[in-house]
Write a structure and sequence with these properties.
about 270 residues; alpha/beta; Rossmann fold; 2 domains; 8-stranded mixed β-sheet; 8 strands; SAM-dependent_MTases_sf; Class I SAM-dependent methyltransferase
C-alpha cells in the first residue's frame, strides 16, 4: 500500500446508495471492458466513493468476477466510518470475498498498484466543472497502461444514468442508460449528465443537439410502442444512428445492448463547443 503522507484528496459525498443502484454501469463494464479486466494475473479495479454502504462495491466485485475470476476490487472512501462499514462486512463473511478490500482515501488512490479500471459514480456532482476536469486528469494519470476511468452519475434507484469512459487521459465514449418503461423522453437523461456537460445542455452545444434529435427520433418511433417500450427505444436509437455516430457494433452497440436501454456514442458527439 502507498504510504499516506497527506490527507485524502477530495470531499465527502452525501453517501447515498442502495442495492442495484449501479447495475446498469456494472453490466456495461462487464460487457465492454473485458480487455483491461483480464490484464495480468490479478488486475485491480477501484470503486471510488462508494458511499455509506459497501453494497455497490460488493455487487461490482461479484459481477466482475463472472467475467474476470481473478480480478481484485478495492472500495475507497474519504469518510472513515464508511471504510469501517466495509471492513465490518468482510469480517462478517471471512474467506468469502477473496480479493475484495476497503481503504481510506480519495483521488490519490492509495493502492499498491495502478488499477486497470476506476469506477467513480456520483462523486463529481458536487464539484465545479474545472475541478471535475482536474479529477479526470488526476485519476487518469493513476491508471495502469491501457486502463479506463468510468465516471458518471445516476438517480437514487439507478433507473437513469449517464457515464463517460476515459482512456489515456481523454474521454472516449459517453453512454446513456435508462429504465425505458419509466422514461417519458430521452432528454430526461439530461439531469444525469456528467459535470462537464450538465450546464451545457443549451442551444449551440453538441449535447443539446444530440438530445433534441434523440427526442425527435423517440417521437417518430412512437408507433413501435405497441410492441413495448424497449422496441420503441431500439427503433429510436436506430433512427438516431442515421444522423449521429452511434456505436452500432458489439461490444458497445447493437440490438443486444440497446434492448437494455443503453446507447453509446463517441465523446466528440457531445464534447463542449468551446
Amino acid at each position: 500500500m502507498t504510504p499516506r503522507t497527506t490527507k485524502p484528496r477530495g470531499e465527502v459525498t452525501r453517501g447515498t446508495t442502495a442495492p442495484n443502484r449501479l447495475r446498469r454501469v456494472d453490466r456495461w463494464i462487464a460487457a465492454t471492458q473485458t480487455g483491461p479486466l483480464r490484464t495480468g494475473a490479478r488486475p485491480l479495479v477501484v470503486d471510488l466513493g462508494y458511499g455509506a454502504s459497501p453494497v455497490t462495491t460488493v455487487e461490482l466485485y461479484t459481477r466482475l468476477r463472472r467475467v474476470s475470476p481473478h480480478v481484485d476490487v478495492t472500495g475507497i472512501e474519504i469518510e472513515p466510518a464508511r471504510v469501517a462499514a466495509g471492513l465490518a462486512f468482510l469480517e462478517a463473511a471471512p474467506g468469502r470475498y477473496d480479493g475484495l478490500s476497503f481503504l481510506h482515501g480519495g483521488f490519490e488512490l492509495p493502492v499498491d498498484r495502478p488499477p486497470v479500471l476506476v469506477r467513480a459514480f456520483n462523486v463529481l456532482r458536487q464539484y465545479d466543472e474545472a475541478a471535475a476536469w482536474r479529477a479526470w486528469d488526476e485519476l487518469g494519470a493513476r491508471l495502469a497502461p491501457g486502463g479506463v476511468l468510468v465516471e458518471g452519475t445516476c438517480d437514487e434507484i439507478g433507473r437513469r444514468a449517464v457515464w463517460v469512459a476515459l482512456r489515456e487521459g481523454r474521454p472516449r465514449t459517453i453512454t446513456f442508460a435508462a429504465h425505458v418503461p419509466s422514461l417519458e423522453r430521452p432528454s430526461d437523461l439530461a439531469e444525469r449528465l456528467p459535470k462537464t456537460l450538465i450546464h451545457r445542455n443549451v442551444p449551440g452545444e453538441r449535447v443539446h443537439a444530440l438530445l433534441t434529435d434523440f427526442d425527435r427520433c423517440w417521437a417518430t418511433a412512437a408507433p413501435y410502442s405497441v410492441f413495448g417500450p424497449r422496441v420503441r427505444w431500439i427503433e429510436a436509437v436506430r433512427l438516431l444512428a442515421r444522423t449521429h455516430p452511434v456505436l452500432t457494433s458489439p461490444p458497445y452497440g447493437g440490438r443486444a445492448r440497446w434492448r437494455l436501454g443503453e446507447v453509446t456514442l463517441p465523446w466528440h458527439t457531445v464534447a463542449p463547443a468551446a
